[in-house]
């Protein structure tokens, strides 16, 4: 059921043509075009690089970071300036440049080995390396796994809108016209669009709300019940009107930093999980058909507002949700599928222990009367939550789950998930900066030092707070 898009954004593919090469500000477009031609001509002789070879880090806007080593014989001569010219021509941003005497040097100390870390446009990678091979020897790149693009700033989520299924009421004559039918893209809008629901839509909401809320006191976890009460008090949660995303988003932002973003249908797992890394929850606004108020084949606002929203107001659950999102960034398709399965068995269909009994916290359960009753009965199997096993467990999206996973509590579940996430192989570590709501790639010592110094300040503050209360 997991459909994944290509990790290569289409705009990168488009730029990969000579006709769109940007001109060199130094006024050498001819030289650049000539290098491009030469590289293509000589490609067979110089072992053309596969697409992405040597690419260790794909930055935003199609920039790639390369790690190169090469040797220059008799560096005092023209070789050095020619080499510099290659980097200059392709507007390579040099991050690190180091030399040492060549190990295999025969008679002279003028033979140098170079280590260069540089940033260059993705479409120039092969040409730059082939050009370098003409002026230097032993040109090598470090061959590592290509890293799928992922958003690093909250506004990058505008590029994460790949729908698996789009709700199209105009094409579906069994459904009433939805007021959200004009929504074709997902974008953070400020303010979020308000929707005027019809009398019939409100009647459907009333029926769902009444029936489910009668079950919550005995079946929902404490965190859900606490938040639900708050939502009734502050956000217009009541059976006679459908709450607006704008009000709910403001409510969540104050409590856990989560915000809602309208979405036109079911997103790809990669895009959906990525938004969680920024504490953004993609929410539909349309409502299920009135003829089947207790069932919706796709997520609708009953599912989002009654299932997901109350739990997103809990700090520990918010942390757990963000941890899945962060783990997904830059992960391979195989890992995304596992994380999507983890998401399914926790955020959608999770159970947890509470005061000696089992309660529901999964949105798929809390928005489905029938499955909520069934999940807490003795009919299905209850297994302890263990990310390694849960991530590969087969799941059902057509019938009730035969197996549910039970967390000890959210703190324990988050710790287990973070331990699992550390095992996902990636050539980098990430840090979420809550001040800028952005992801920082910890790929230099300085970045790690900066993050550490922020943490030290926070620890000092906490130590001080402990002293004050002891
Ligand atoms: Fe959901």
UniProtKB/TrEMBL annotation:
Alphabetical list of InterPro entries matching this protein: ACT-like_dom_sf (IPR045865), ArAA_hydroxylase (IPR001273), ArAA_hydroxylase_Fe/CU_BS (IPR018301), ArAA_hydroxylase_sf (IPR036951), Aro-AA_hydroxylase_C_sf (IPR036329), Aromatic-AA_hydroxylase_C (IPR019774), TH_ACT (IPR049321), Tyrosine_3-monooxygenase-like (IPR019773)
Location in the cell: Cell projection, Axon; Cytoplasm, Perinuclear region
One function term, GO molecular function aspect: tyrosine 3-monooxygenase activity
Residue positions binding Fe cation: 303, 308, 348
Family matches, as Gene3D superfamilies: 3.30.70.260, Aromatic amino acid hydroxylase
Region (Disordered): 1-56
Cofactor(s) the protein requires to work: Fe(2+)
The keyword Transmembrane helix is assigned to this record: no
First-listed, main subcellular location of the protein, grouped into a coarse class: other
Pathway assigned in UniProt: Catecholamine biosynthesis; dopamine biosynthesis; dopamine from L-tyrosine: step 1/2
PANTHER family named in the record: AROMATIC AMINO ACID HYDROXYLASE (PTHR11473), BIOPTERIN-DEPENDENT AROMATIC AMINO ACID HYDROXYLASE FAMILY PROFILE DOMAIN-CONTAINING PROTEIN (PTHR11473:SF19)
Name recorded for this polypeptide: Tyrosine 3-monooxygenase
Organism, scientific name: Gopherus evgoodei (Goodes thornscrub tortoise)
Gene name in the database record: LOC115644756
